[in-house]
Write a structure and sequence with these properties.
The protein is of the alpha/beta class. Helices cover 39% and strands 20% of the residues. It contains 5 helices and 5 strands, in the order βαβαβαβαβα. Helix 1 links the parallel strand 1 and strand 2. 25% of the residues are buried.
């Protein structure tokens, strides 16, 4: 994978589990031109999304305060938030394509992650739009 084809990338990871956040950051930190932003719940993510646009949103489905599905609904209904269409759901559930589309995501990655599949999925989604 040639990560140098991308300009500056901003990825927002939203997960309430500190271990999962750290794992994802460690999996992505080698990628050039990528700035990784983190939020521990949907409310914190909304604040970050109101300040800047992200190239990709990696979103846990199940979180306290505001879960991933509720966050996506708020994003869709907000006129102030510009959000990428590259939304990747992260969950322990196996969702079918219809469920994923209804929630508003492009793809769903099942936890625990296989590193090579995780990285390849992110690369493929980003390269389709070449941000």
């Amino acid at each position: 994978m040639d990560w140098h084809i991308f300009k500056e990338l901003h990825i927002l990871i939203v997960d309430d589990d500190p271990f999962t956040l750290e794992l994802i950051v460690s999996m992505l930190k080698h990628i050039p031109n990528m700035t990784i932003h983190q939020a521990s719940d949907g409310e914190e993510a909304l604040e970050l999304l109101s300040v800047r646009e992200y190239d990709m949103l990696l979103l846990d489905l199940y979180m306290p305060k505001m879960n991933g599905e509720a966050l996506l609904a708020k994003i869709k209904n907000s006129k102030k938030i510009e959000c990428t269409s590259l939304i990747v759901l992260m969950t322990t559930d196996r969702l079918n394509k219809r469920e994923i589309e209804e929630i508003g995501a492009k793809v769903c990655l099942t936890k625990p992650f296989d590193f090579s599949v995780f990285e390849e999925t992110i690369y493929d989604l980003l390269s389709k739009g070449v941000v």
